[in-house]
Amino acid sequence: MKKFLPAILLFYTVYAQTILTPQKTLLAKGGVKDAVYKKGYLYVATEVGTVEIFHLKTGKKIKQINLPDIEDFFGEKIRPKVYSVDVSSDNTIYMLVQSTKGFSQLFSYQHGKLNLIISENEKILAIKAKLYKDRYILLGLPANDLILYDLRNRKKVYQIHISRSPFSDFAINKDKVAVACESGIVYIVDIPTGKVEKEIPKMNLDKTFKIDFKGNYILTGGRDKKATLYNTKTGEKYIFKADFFVYSVGLSPSLKYGAYGINEKSDIAVFNLPLKTVNYLLKGHSYALNNIIFIDDTHLITTDESRKILMWRLNQ
User: Fold this and answer.
1) 298, pLDDT greater than 90
2) Model-level pTM greater than 0.90?
3) d(CA 135, CA 192)
4) Which of 99, 109, 118, 23 is nearest to 63 (CA)?
5) Distance of CA 181 to the CA centre of its chain
6) I need a labelling partner for 161 at 20 to 30 A (CA). Which of 123, 185, 251, 278 fits?
């Protein structure tokens, strides 16, 4: 494993000249935990045991999947939190869900049928799950373990321990995954082998909340009130200051733009990635951000801990 000590370029954020408000607001049934965009549809996981599918062109909710109730410590029926959602190329929906015994369950949904893939009896406590090449799913555990799980054969391919620092988030980019944790260090892991290939120190000086990884760029946001952009090819690092904890970040598919939460009001700064200049300030959220999803270089979707899902259009 190699450690990289990149050059640091510090940028003091200036609020954007162009202030935008959302084009459209959608409402989920409960507080949003996760969201993923696929082929014109938004799949939203909530804290009240639902995964909801929205058709973005019309803004209409076209389907709601209800996960089974679980029991709390007093034996009372409660709705489970849905930690993660992802969608395969054949439109099978995978959902990582809270279970009764404090562990996690993985469900799939296809053709109107809900299937249990990983039960609580396997005693896996995961808080994030994302597909890798459709056949596998990558699980992130609070102890900073990664599990690669074979969906076809219903078994673990491997389980690796990344570091002693608790897990925060991960982002998959082709055959690599960038793993963020409470130390502020980012680890790049080769998914097929489970080998930690790189360790990038001081992406944040405190807990990293969110990470995105596209092309040669990694973007993180943390408790140190910074969003950090790192070029994996050159080792250059750019730091954008915020006025509050940076709970969420996102990169556009073409890497023209990046975005991060900039203040306590949950406003979002959108910056031009090549120029490192803030072009837009998005205003509309009131709660802590948890997802910034670029559909393309013009449209993005953002969510926070409330029911609110906001749709934005740049270049207005």
Assistant:
1) yes
2) yes
3) 12
4) 109
5) 13
6) 251
